[in-house]
Amino acid sequence: MLLRSRQGPGASASMLPLFSVLFLLLAAAWASEITFELPDNAKQCFYEEIAQGTKCTLEFQVITGGHYDVDCRLEDPDGIVLYKEMKKQYDSFTFTASRNGTYKFCFSNEFSTFTHKTVYFDFQVGDEPPLFPSENRVTALTQMESACVSIHEALKSVIDYQTHFRLREAQGRSRAEDLNTRVAYWSIGEAIILLVVSIGQVFLLKSFFSDKRTTTTRVGS
């Protein structure tokens, strides 16, 4: 309401391209999010061209599978290990590229013999470009630009929360399905045991009331 009163009748039309740019920037900022299946005894690597001095952040989380853990390893173009963790459920690592080249990060499930995993990771390279070119200037932003920047930051927070809750929901659903499967198998086992015991008791009681005929054999002298 405040924006419309400040900008007059043309405010709605002028806000459309601003919001279009805002959503495009949001989409570009999260293009590195990937969720993939990692089979047992498998290793999956990803590669990214990074310029020297660029700040990067790698964040990952195991959504489903086994004990929800995975091995992670990050190497620079020279093969120097920048980050290495074994059997981690989730983690975040931030670094600054020391040189130009292709950086490699791998997720390994080679320690698991029969359980596959579902892994989510977000690899952010560099800082997000400013929403408006005037943000890098000394001049102050207009009220419209300031409002758009505030909305942009709020939408980024919403996306972060949505991603977090989607991951928790997927992990909780996987655990619930696994628990449901175990309960179903346990119930089937109990039913089979109960059936066997019942049949055994029937035959046991029947043997108590059955007539036992004895035969006498005479041996002649």
Structural class: alpha+beta
Order of helices and strands: HHEEEEEEEEH
Shape descriptor reads: elongated
For the secondary structure, the number of strands is 8
CATH topology of the largest domain: Jelly Rolls
CA gyration radius, whole angstroms: 33 Å
Subcellular location: Cytoplasmic vesicle, COPI-coated vesicle membrane; Cytoplasmic vesicle, COPII-coated vesicle membrane; Endoplasmic reticulum membrane; Endoplasmic reticulum-Golgi intermediate compartment membrane
Keywords: Cytoplasmic vesicle, Endoplasmic reticulum, Glycoprotein, Golgi apparatus, Membrane, Protein transport, Signal, Transmembrane, Transmembrane helix, Transport
InterPro entries: Emp24-like, GOLD_dom, GOLD_dom_sf
Protein name: Transmembrane emp24 domain-containing protein 7
Molecular structure report:
There is one protein chain. This protein is α+β, with helices and mostly antiparallel strands. It is built from three helices and eight strands, in the order H-H-E-E-E-E-E-E-E-E-H. It has a four-stranded antiparallel β-sheet. The chain has a four-stranded antiparallel β-sheet with strand order 2-7-4-5, with no helix packed on it. A hairpin with a 5-residue loop joins strand 4 (70-75) and strand 5 (81-88). Helix 2 crosses helix 3. The radius of gyration is 33 Å and the shape is elongated. The N and C termini lie far apart (125 Å). It comes from Anolis carolinensis. Residues 43-125 form the GOLD domain. Residues 1-31 form the signal peptide. Keywords: Cytoplasmic vesicle, Endoplasmic reticulum, Glycoprotein, Golgi apparatus, Membrane, Protein transport, Signal, Transmembrane, Transmembrane helix, Transport.
